[in-house]
Amino acid sequence: MKQIGTLFRKDLLLEWRLQHTFYGILLYIASTIFILFISINKPEGQIWNGLFWITLLFMSVHAVAKSFFQENPERMGYYKSLVSARTFLLAKLLYNIILMLFLSILTFFLFCFFLGAPFLHFGNFIWLTVAGGFSLTLLFTLLAAIASKASQNAALMAILGFPLIIPQLLLLLKMSKAAFGEVFQEGAFFNMSMVLIGLDGMIFTLSLILFPFLWKD
Fold first, then answer.
1. Do 138 and 201 form a contact (C-beta atoms < 8 A)?
2. Integer Cα distance of 136 and 153 in angstroms
């Protein structure tokens, strides 16, 4: 835990020194929402829902990928002499999860402020925003780790991520319809939540298994 905390603070300090990357993400969020506002003003529920998850998806790619791409090979070699692969991965996951939760909640409230809040159940959508940000972080952290070992080829994230992200997005879109008043069969929302948790658990387990092999490369 001490090593994870030290690596987490290192990422936080690095983010503070390279503030242009963080501000670039904020600019992307603000400009995207503002363009949507002046283009369609107050969209209906289903359009609002789709636009929100598309924005969150692309924002997560930019936010998570940089955590591995900003590490040069010499620094990675130094980390290998100090900590284990799983310790390094858990520190990256912790930092990315906290960053994504902040950005996801910020995106949600900016959407509500500029594009209105057409959903009926505020609490449900907040929970799904947090759960969706967490799920996207797990997946793209693993993909960023793989891409960083392939000459830091960001295109590899898109190639690997497309078939993996579709089930999560479809599930999140389906679940979020409950916040807009769609009625599900009894227990259906709970079952979908369990499927989402299962997908997250599978990705987390695969990350812990596969990353040590990437670490040795």
1. no
2. 19
CA-wise closest residue to 126 among 138, 139, 111, 115: 111
Q: Which helix (H) or strand (E) holds 42?
A: none
Which secondary-structure segment (H or E) carries 194? helix 188-216
Residue 181 has phi, psi (to 5 degrees) of: 100, 0
Q: What is the pLDDT of residues 12-57, one digit of tens each?
A: 877 777 777 788 888 989 999 999 999 888 888 888 988 999 999 8
List the one residue out of 1, 11, 18 whose CA is nearest residue 92: 11
Question: Could you give the C-alpha distances from 115 to 35, 49, 132, in angstroms and in order?
Answer: 11, 11, 20
How do residues 153-162 score in pLDDT, each as one tens digit?
566 676 777 7
- Please answer whether residues 53 and 132 qualify as being in contact, where contact means their C-beta atoms are separated by less than 8 angstroms: yes
| Whole-structure pTM value | 0.86
What is the dihedral sign for C-alpha 130, 135, 140, 141?
Answer: positive
DSSP 8-state secondary structure symbol assigned to residue 41: S
